[in-house]
User: Fold this.
Amino acid sequence: MAVEPLPSPRTAPPPTTHVAGGSVYFQGRIVPFAEATVSVATHALNYGTACFEGIRAYWNEDREELYLLKLSEHYRRFLRSTQLLKMHLRETVDELGQITCDILRRDGHRGDVYIRPIAYKSSPIIKVDLHSSSDALAIFAVPMGDYARTDGLRLTISSWRRIGDNSIPARGKVTGAYVNTALAVDDAISAGYDDCLMLTEDGHIAEASAANVFLVQSGTLVTPPVSDDILVGITRAAVMELARDRGLPIVERTIDRTETYQAEEIFLCGTGVQVAPVVEIDGRAVGSGAPGKTTLDLQDAYFAAVRGSDPRYRHWCTPVYGGMPRMTPAQNPI
Ligand SMILES: Cc1ncc(COP(=O)(O)O)c(C=O)c1O
Assistant:
């Protein structure tokens, strides 16, 4: 199939989000961003021994409410990641959710927000192991719109392989593992692509740099299984729920690289990228070279659900204000 030229010029990719302020949960209390600092000798900074989450909260203008998306799912995965690194946090899933709401309320957010909890080995020690250091927790938040373009991504297959479960387990969101991501995505962007798909060590499709991948083949959604070195995405599960509710068949199976060159549609999904159509892969148009219908239907359904606009998925959303008075930063100095 001939590659249709993509519309030119393309819209600019979303800007990089810089974190510069706001309230931070740090050393057991909420402090201003500038006070939440760590030593250069911190174990996690030196050895990559931290794990993190990325959580979104979506602003619903009509209801004047901020909805945290899949809050408990994220914190359950967070605690599973800490278990991989033999960390012992004091906070429970419910307490982590409560702290997150407190931070957001404190800053009075009225717009979409990205929340970053991070648990890290905090001791200033020269020792590479998992048991000599103390553990610490920080949670910060930043206003954030799109992380990646949602109107059509151009991808390549990376020459960097996805780290295997017996190297650094991809199922945990471990900071050190994101060097693997950075190497791959940096190559892709330098070569003019938006992102890349990474292959497992045995050459099958794993996932994109920070997102899971779905193919549409003969109307069926196909996605790699959890045993193919992926982060088991919370958005992946959300998309599957949306698909099931629409009667779309879903298959989790190992995917060959060249299946992506022949798929009817491809899309990425993740907290950051949300649901993002892929229109080109390694110089080959995906389908017609424009976002496909199944993808766009799921994208619409996802955006309605996450903003709390579809009552069927309201249970995905935790209201931050929930009728509580919103405080502006000025009313609530820290
Ligand atoms: C490597 C990787 N895969 C997949 C995902 C998507 O996961 P989720 O939908 O839970 O955000 C992410 C983002 O968190 C990621 O970093």
